[in-house]
Amino acid sequence: QVQLVESGGGLVQAGGSLRLSCAASRSIFSINAMNWYRQAPGKQRELVAGITSGGSANYADSVKGRFTISRDNAENTVYLRMNSLKPEDTAVYYCNAFVVVTTISYSYWGQGTQVTVSS
Asked: Are 71 and 55 in contact (CB under 8 A)?
């Protein structure tokens, strides 16, 4: 089991920056992947960025070059640095932990944090 708590959301003007944090209830060292998803009103939840236990990161095309995901294993925390924010980045952002134990996968979610970008 992993409990995840997001923080850092808020209201920002277009072009501004925010840093989201996701604190895990236990060590994230062995968690296969930590991800950030987002869901805008009326839209499906989408993967924004992910980082593996080895530190490899991937991003949605819409955020490449603007968002940076990082993990601090010592603090059991994953971050999402968001620069050059656009109104279309407005959504609830969710932290996700993906764990594989032998052949069984588990997915844990935080409660989400609202990001609103005004034009």
From this structure: yes
- CB neighbour list of residue 76: distance below 8 Å, 6 or more residues apart: 23, 24, 25, 26, 27, 28
Tokens read off for 34? 């930590």
Distance CA 119, CA 38 (A): 19
The residue assigned the tokens 């805008």 is: 40
Start-to-end C-alpha separation, the chain: 40
Q: Which two three-digit tokens encode residue 29?
A: 């060292």
* Beta-carbon count within 10 A of 86 CB: 14
pLDDT in tens, 35-90: 999 999 999 999 999 999 999 999 999 999 999 999 998 999 999 999 999 999 99
- Angstrom CA distances, 26 to 35, 60, 75, 80, 95, stand at 16, 27, 10, 19, 14
Taking only the tens place, the pLDDT of each residue in 8-38 is 999 999 999 999 999 999 888 889 999 999 9
The pLDDT assigned to 63 comes to 98
